[in-house]
Design brief:
It contains 10 helices and 12 strands. With 299 residues, the protein is an alpha+beta fold. The protein binds cytidine-5'-monophosphate. Catalyzes the phosphorylation of the position 2 hydroxy group of 4-diphosphocytidyl-2C-methyl-D-erythritol.
Length: 299
């Protein structure tokens, strides 16, 4: 028997970052929106824990216990006193190390798939607690939709979304390390008074009413200057997307994927074609939001 779980990518429509905390993390007001790009994680009984990965970027995915899917299986097995003997296969479609929570998606997917395969019947709260141990973005990968993340991003409040938003994602060559981007943020704000992060009322209104133009005006990512500082060429990608008619563009999370909000499906195709033709990105993907969280799709 195998269990397959599908898990969405995310874009941060607001990422407000506070000063570094004593534990090295940053307090956030992090508005997550799940988007319709998905990884699929399949769990199958095996003699020992094993990870495989397929998809165009599979070569960039670690297959050892640094993979969040492996860590999810180990964490669930340890809590329930069982042996983590499972083959986890990741069919990867979310850009790797792109700031779209692809690794977090695999962690949430593996957790749900192992829980179903092993019959451990973890409660939603237990699953969320394990997700929070795995990483700041992992709880959101489990719940999907839209949510405000506070603390280091792991404490979630679900948000209402009143419509469908259309996106284009420009995938850059190579990844950006999340700790490196936060480190650059710290360097750029050194000596300045960093305000406590707070969710933007205009942005929450835009989500609630499904108003694309309002959302375009409210998109904000405090990590963007740091990502641009480490990867200055992202400014060319942002310029190409907005010149092609995107309503707004921003770096997705810690980057280097850039996200463009567009009016509708036709505009998405036009902007994706223009981004590809501009030569400022490796590939361009079209998606919509919100998208559901981790969901079992096959047994
Ligand atoms: O929680 P996660 O493992 O995804 O975090 C990766 C890294 O990103 C952390 O080690 C830290 O450097 C940085 N981070 C942070 N503040 C957050 C979330 C992540 O500084 N709220």
């Amino acid at each position: 028997m195998s269990i397959t779980v599908r898990v969405p990518a995310k874009v941060n429509v607001q990422l407000a970052v506070g000063a570094a905390r004593p534990d090295g993390f940053h307090d956030l007001a992090n508005v997550f929106l799940a988007v319709s790009l998905y990884d699929e994680v399949t769990a199958t009984p095996a003699d020992e824990l094993r990870i495989t990965c397929s998809g165009p970027d599979a070569g960039q995915v670690p297959l050892d216990t640094t993979n969040l899917a492996a860590r999810a299986a180990l964490a669930l097995a340890a809590r329930h006193g069982i042996s983590p003997d499972v083959h986890l296969h990741i069919a990867k479609d979310i850009p790797v190390a792109g700031g779209m929570a692809g690794g977090s998606a695999d962690g949430a997917g593996a957790l749900l798939a192992c829980d179903a395969l092993w019959g451990t019947r973890a409660s939603r709260d237990e699953l969320l607690a394990i997700c929070a141990e795995l990483g700041s973005d992992v709880p959101f990968s489990l719940v999907g939709g839209a949510a405000l993340g506070t603390g280091r991003g792991e404490r979630l409040t679900p948000l209402e979304v009143g419509g469908t938003f259309h996106w284009v994602f420009a995938v850059a060559d190579g990844g950006l390390s999340t700790p490196a981007v936060y480190g650059e943020f710290d360097r750029l704000v050194a000596g300045a008074d960093v305000p406590a992060p707070a969710a933007s009322a205009a942005l929450l209104d835009a989500l609630r009413t499904g108003d694309t133009a309002l959302l375009a005006g409210a998109l904000v990512n405090d990590l963007q200057p740091a990502a641009l500082s480490l990867r200055p060429s992202l400014a060319d990608t942002l310029a190409a997307g907005t010149a092609a008619g995107a309503l707004a563009g921003l770096v997705s999370g810690s980057g280097p994927t850039t996200a463009f909000l567009v009016k509708d499906e036709d505009a998405a195709r036009t902007v994706a074609d223009a981004l590809l033709a501009s030569g400022t990105c490796r590939t361009a993907r079209v998606a919509t939001s919100p998208a559901p969280g981790a969901t079992q799709i096959r047994t």
